[in-house]
Structures are given as structure tokens and as C-alpha cells.
Amino acid sequence: MIDYFTVFTTGGIVLWQKCNQPVSAAIVDSLVSDIFIEDRTRSGEQSSLTKDRYTVKWTTANDFGIIIVAVYQSLLQISFIDELLASVKKLFTTLYGDELTNKDPEKLPVCKFDDYFAVRYAELEILSAGRNVGEVINEGFGEKFASGDESDDVSEPPSRVTSSDSVGDPVKAEKATVKKPNLSKRGGRRGGRGGPTTRVGRESPFGSSGDEVPTKKSGKKLRKWDIDGSARDISDDEGPLDFSAGNTNGNVTANGEHSDNPLLEDENVENWGSKTKSGEFILKDLSSEINSILAAPDASTTADGTRGASAALASGFGFFRNIIGNKVLNEQDLDKALAAMKDHLMKKNVAPEVAQHLCDVVSKSLVGTKTGNWTSIEKTVRAAMEAALRRILTPSTSVDLLHEIQRVKSTNPPRPYVISVVGVNGVGKSTNLSKIAFWLLQNNMKLLIAACDTFRSGAVEQLRVHARNLKKLTEREGGEIELFEKGYGKDAANIARDAITYGREHGFDVVLIDTAGRRHNDTRLMSSLEKFAKYANPDKIVMVGEALVGTDSVQQARNFNAAFGPSRNLDFFLISKCDTVGDMIGSMVNMTYSTGIPVLFVGTGQMYTDLRTLSVPWAVNMLMA
Amino acid sequence: MSSPPETAKPDGLTTHEAISTSGYGLPVYILAVGLIIITAYFAYELFFRKSKGLAAGGPTFIIAGPSGSGKTSLFTLLRYGEKSTTLPSVEQNITTKFWLPNLLDTAKPFVLIDTPGHQKLRHGMFSALQIAQAARTIHGVLYVVDASAMSRPEQLREAAEYLYDILRITERVRGGTDVLVGANKSELFTAVPAKRLRTLLETELDKIRESRAKSVGKVSAGGDKHDSDDGDEDDGAVVGGSGWLGKRGEKGSFKLEDLETDVMVIDGSVDNGKIDPWIAWMEERAVN
């Protein structure tokens, strides 16, 4: 069962919604902002996202400015969800298209979509139930077995089904007989793809026998599971088959498992039945209307057809169209402009993967929309790309270090604020650490620098020099700085912990921890970071990345972000050596894209003062220049 | 094969031209004049009209505020007289046909812009405000906050930070742009009353002012060593840096009254339809 289904405008006005299970508004809100604002989907083309225990699927209609979202519990597998979304999109845009295209309507659009949705949902449910028996199970479960990943999920539900089977056996048998006429009436007509013959053959013995066990057994033999199952346990093999047998009763049974199963099912069936009996005329009318809408060719495809016919005229006119604007964009139009844009971004050191993603985002957001008056496609794409870059680079929460340090200072008992820097060898961890130190010293903080790079020779001495310099520089302003060192060869995590204890005892405001540089794909060195995060538990973990690095920065950021264990992430990036790359600052985009973590600081030179916060417009300008 | 006709064509054209310039002077002149007019129009469209944008359409009110404060609900309530269920906005809602109830026949309709509250999308609000300020069409900013969340420090902090960024822009014009802080959801038990909210915001803005002044400067074009003291050369798109808001003074001395911008904090509730004081505020600003 779908928990929550909604159609809303990009402006956030809900046009229609259906709530089967109460889903808290906070969850839906966070899902919407994760998907459409923060762009947390990284699984390629698939428009789905799983968070907590919910899975979200969605589709958009840019030309109408609407978004269609379905939320359901991740445990459930709703096979027809994509079809449902597509048909709702079609129905909705056909029924309310006129109201929706008007960007400034006189009234709030009222969309009475309940009946359409209910009918379409029931249709698809029955269709998919039929298909499940026919082919989907064979293929679907075979794949799952081959992958083996989801064997846990698959083997879990059957036990429940079998237990409920024994209880609700007669009820189900009844239901099967109740549903049968419906199937032949409604499903049979459109059953072409479902394989009607297999379904009928499957369904009829089921309904008449009323006994589940023999059908299950026979079903297993018929489907020849042993080919797949030969490598696996036979008992494992039976699990999913049980499940599928449960499915033959109609998807409702499988879906209802988690809630009060018999009630829901009864209601649904009754609904369906009563409608067919008392209000058959209305229902038929509605469903035929739905079918006629869905059968109607897509507006865009017809447009394509006419365009193809008058291709010569279009190409001649296209040039003017491009200048004048007001052109409805399709993918072909965008491809050329986007290819150029992708090349441009890659020249700026943006990784191909990231550039492709950005182009996809832009393409998705533009297909179906009209270009503005006097705006060419290139300009439109450019503007959209700027917006996409801005969106990636802008942090979703602001970081105010000084404020946080003050806040921690005022806790009782006071403790030092801990910042640690990590990164690959030679990116400038110590240098930028001392730049941060200089800034904090100027704000009259009492600092402790912990030398936790116990590996590279000279690392401790380097920090000692920095500490001495900084002390001299800021003596007059009242900053205090001290170096905590334990020599070489010791465990970094322990030193960090000792440093923090020392800092607490001696009333330091901030402890800055320098760590050894490590290659991000060296698992041995990276694994020690988890222990480090546990022992030192820094308030902020800063990853220093150099602007020079290019494509590898994607992987660097990912690996470092994952290195601190499941419950800890990086907090922000410091991109060093920005003065050496000119406008090729693509590494910034790579790192924020791959982790969703913002760039806070930018290193721009060799002096202690050469530390800046990132200005997003500056970065966007550089990238688009 | 195709070369002979190709060469013939230009010849034909030149003879045509020769005829027209000698015999039919008038049509050519008309054509030329028409062409000039058309190019002039194109040039006008290209260079002048585009710079203005939609936000500069007419007298404008902008709705802003943190995520989840009820901006879109307020928008539909003001525009359509009914509030709708909402989800987080991804794009702006814009209407050019917004009438204030008491000014139905006197004034022109207003432009009402509802901006997304998500941090990543605030840029759109800043630029809309700047465009409207530059065109002198802005009549006020409705800054909506969830008063029931203002007792939580992080939420208050976020609300104050966004307000700070807006004030940085409104302070740039003489006399400032009026800002109404609408303490929405006042019907809730935990709602902070307007008076208290005002002082809360003031103390928070004071802290932000302090820490912004001390923060590291923003990186600027060319990566040179100048701190961008006032974020103006950034096109002001993202404000921040270390510009000082209000009078120079001791820590804790920030007062909203000291600003050029007139900031008022008024209770209201979109849920209960209690937005009359806000409408009154807008009507006051509308006639000016």
C-alpha cells in the first residue's frame, strides 16, 4: 500500500494528495528538500530515494511545473509504482493541464482526483497481480537470487504470510472467487502484456481449490526453480516461493501484511464490489475515460511528428526561434548545448562524472520548459547551470565557528572546542591549520596545537616553528598558543585524547589537531581514522583538499567522508592552493558533489593571512567564465 | 552538375538589384527603414528589457523566511483567500494580480513573490529583492518566522541569520526597505510573543554582527589579498563578509531602531486566518 501520494507545484502548493497511512509532515518535508533541493540522489537515472524506512519515487512534469511523489515503506515492493506515477502524470496533466499552465491563476487550482486515482490504482493492482503470477516472479526472483543481496528481505516476509495463511485461509479462498469476475471483465481487456492465458490457467485452479498447499507445490515444480536454486539451499528456495504464492492472491495481501491485513483487504474488495454493483455505470465511465486519456498519444510525440514532417521549415526557422526565444525545449535541443557545457566544466577541472551529473540535472530541469523571450538555448542552459552550481556549492547549514566556540566555552564544565584536519599527503594540512590558528589568535583565543602526525619526519618540528611564529605575531594582541607534542612513533588517537584532556585542564579554548597525511585508498591508514574519531571526538573534522588534484578529488572526498565510521562525517572542506589554479577550481565542485559537505575555507597563498571563506558567487563566476 | 546554376544565381541577383535601385527607389527605402526599425527594436529588447526581469514588474511585496515558517500558505491566503496544504518550495511563487482588500479600486495590483526558504535557494530572494530595490518597486518584505520554534536556539539562530542577510541588503538604500517580521503560528502554545521575539532577534543579530565582523574575509576575484569588506562587488548576491549592521558600538548594543530599515514584529496566524495586522501593515506601505 502506498502510504502517501501527492501532486504539488514546484512552488510548494499541494494540488492533490492521498494519505493512506499517516506519514509525519516532517518526514515528507525532509524528503522533498533532500530530493529536489539538496539533490541527494546519486543512483543514476532512477528517481527513487530511500530514507529511514520509506522509499520515495517521483516524476516531474516541467512544462506544467508539477512534481508527483509516492512514498511507501521500503519493506514493500510495489511493482507497478512506475506505471502508476506515469499514468497519474498523464491523467493529471490532461485533466488539469489548462489550469496548471496558467502560471498566475485567478483561483487556487482544485483537483478532484480521488476517483481517478482509486480506479487507476485498482486497475494496476489487479494487472500487476496477474503479471506476478505469469512472468514477473520468475524473472524478478531469479535476479534477486543471483544477486543474493536481498535474500534477507525476501526470506523474512514468507514466514508471516504462511502464518497468516493458516488463519485466513477460507477468507482468502473466498476473495479469490470474488475477484475472479473482475479480472475477467476488466483485466482481461488490457491483459495483452500480462499474458492472459498463463494468468487464467494459474488463477482458476487457485480459486476453485481453496487450498493453498497443493498449488504452492505445483507452482514450484512448474517454475523450475531448481536451476537457480541448485547453488543454494533448498529451504531458502522455498521461502520466496511461498511469498509469491501469497502474491497470487492479489498484491493487496502482500502489501497489507504490516498493517491490519484482513481489514484493509476487505475494505478494498468491498469498495470495488459495491462500486461494480451499485454504481457500475459511473465506474465504467471513469475507467473508460482514464483509458482513453492514457491511450491518447503523448502531446510531445505528436509534436515531434509534425516537427519531423516540416523539418526543413523548422531548421530554417530554428535560428530565429533561438534568438526570439519562447521555444519549448526537448532533449535534442539541449544535448548540443549541454555537451559544450560539459566540456567547459571539464576544462575547469570538474570530474567527468560530476559534469555529467550536473548536465543531467540541468537537462531534467529544462526539458519541457519554454525559453524566455529573447533568450537562446545556450543562455538558458547557462543560467540553469549557474543555478545548479550555486545549489551544489551553497551550504545547507551555515557554519559559524566563532559562535560555536563561544557556545562550547560557556557550557558547564567548560571544555575546549576541538578541530582536527585530515587529508592526503602534502595538501597543506599543517600550513592551513596554522592559518586557522592565526585567525583564532586574532580573536583572542587560547589555542593548543596537538602534533598528532607521528609519522613523517619533521612534522612536529614544523608545527613547533609555526607555533613560535604565531606566538610572536600575536603576542601583542593577547592570543595564547601552545604546542602539545609526544614525539614520533606513538599512536595518534591516544595523543589526541591526551591533548584534549590537557587542554581541558589548562583552560584552552580550542584544540587544533594535526594528523598525518594518508592516501585515501590505503585501507590500513584510513582505518585508523575511525579510532581517531572515537578517541578524539572532534567538534569539527576538516578535510584539506588541494585545488590542483582534479578528478581524483571525488574519490578522496568520498573515502575520507566514509573513514570515520557510520555515525561520523566530515564537517567541511578547506580547499588549499587556490592561488595556483586560476579559474580551474572544479575540485571544489567535485568534493561538495560527492559528499554534500560544504567548502568553508579557501587557502589562497603562503601567508598566515591567506585564508578566506568561500564566496559562492565568486566560485560560480570562475567556473562559468 | 550543380555548379552552372549556382554561378548563374548571383548574376540574376545583381541584375535584380540594379533594376531595383535604379527604377524602384521607394520600396527599397521603405525596406531599409523597416529594417532599421526592426533592428532597433531587437536591440532594445536584447539590451534593455532583459536587465529588468520579472521582479521589477510593479509595486512589489516579497515573502521570505526560514523553511517551514508558512510562507507559501501565507501566499495562497493572501492571493486566493484560502490557505493550501504545502510542501517545501523549490521555486518562487509569483503573482502579478495581488489586490489588498482595502485598496481594491484605488491602487494598481501588486506583485507578490513567495520565495523558497531553504538555505540553498535563498539566493533567489536576495536577487529579487535587489532588483526590486534597484527599480524602486519594493514596498516591503514580509519576513515570516515560526514563532513556536523561536524558543529553540538553533532555529532562532537560523531565522536571525537570514534576517541579517536581508537587512544587509535593505540597508543599502536610503531610508531602507520596510521589513515586517511576521511571528506566524502564534496560535500554538509554545509560540514566542512578538515583543519577546523582537528582543530575542536583537540579541541574536548582535552576536551575528560580532562574529561576522571577526570572520575570515571572503575570497574575491583573482584570489588577491583584499578583504571584501562590503560584499557589494559580489553583486551582493550572497551577503556576509564583515560589513557592520547598525550603529558602531559596544557588544550587546544592537537595536533594530538604529537601522535605516523600519522593522516591525507582529503576531499572526496563517492557520487561523489571523493576518489582519499584517495586511494593515502592507496597506500602510502600499500607499507610500
Automatic annotation (TrEMBL), chain A:
Record bears the keyword Membrane: yes
Keywords: Endoplasmic reticulum, GTP-binding, Membrane, Nucleotide-binding, Receptor
Domain called SRP54-type proteins GTP-binding: residue spans: 598-611
CDD domains: SR_alpha_SRX (cd14826), SRalpha_C (cd17876)
SMART domains: AAA (SM00382), SRP54 (SM00962), SRP54_N (SM00963)
Localization (cell): Endoplasmic reticulum membrane
InterPro entries recorded: AAA+_ATPase, Longin-like_dom_sf, P-loop_NTPase, Sig_recog_particle_rcpt_asu_N, Signal_recog_particl_SRP54_hlx, SRP/SRP_N, SRP54_GTPase_dom, SRP54_N_sf
Gene3D superfamilies: 3.30.450.60, P-loop containing nucleotide triphosphate hydrolases (3.40.50.300), Signal recognition particle SRP54, nucleotide-binding domain (1.20.120.140)
Predominant location: endoplasmic reticulum
Membrane-related topology note: Peripheral membrane protein
Location of region: Disordered: 144-265
Record field: compositional bias (Basic and acidic residues): 224-234
Sequence ranges of Basic residues compositional bias: 182-192
Organism superkingdom: Eukaryota
GO biological process: intracellular protein transport; SRP-dependent cotranslational protein targeting to membrane
Amino acid composition bias (Low complexity), ranges on this chain: 245-256
GO cellular component annotations of the record: signal recognition particle receptor complex
GO molecular function, one term: GTP binding
Record note on quaternary structure: Heterodimer of an alpha and a beta chain.
Alphabetized PANTHER family for the sequence: SIGNAL RECOGNITION PARTICLE RECEPTOR SUBUNIT ALPHA
UniProt record similarity statement: Belongs to the GTP-binding SRP family.
Name listed for the protein in its UniProt record: Signal recognition particle receptor subunit alpha homolog
Automatic annotation (TrEMBL), chain B:
SUPFAM superfamilies per the UniProt record, alphabetical: P-loop containing nucleoside triphosphate hydrolases
Region (Disordered): 216-244
InterPro entries: P-loop_NTPase (IPR027417), SRP_receptor_beta_su (IPR019009)
Chief subcellular location: endoplasmic reticulum
GO MF assignments: GTP binding
Compartment list: Endoplasmic reticulum membrane
Membrane topology classification: Single-pass membrane protein
Keyword Transmembrane helix attached: yes
One GO location term (cellular component): endoplasmic reticulum membrane
Keyword set, alphabetical order: Endoplasmic reticulum, GTP-binding, Membrane, Nucleotide-binding, Receptor, Transmembrane, Transmembrane helix
Family from the record: Belongs to the SRP receptor beta subunit family.
Record protein name field: Signal recognition particle receptor subunit beta
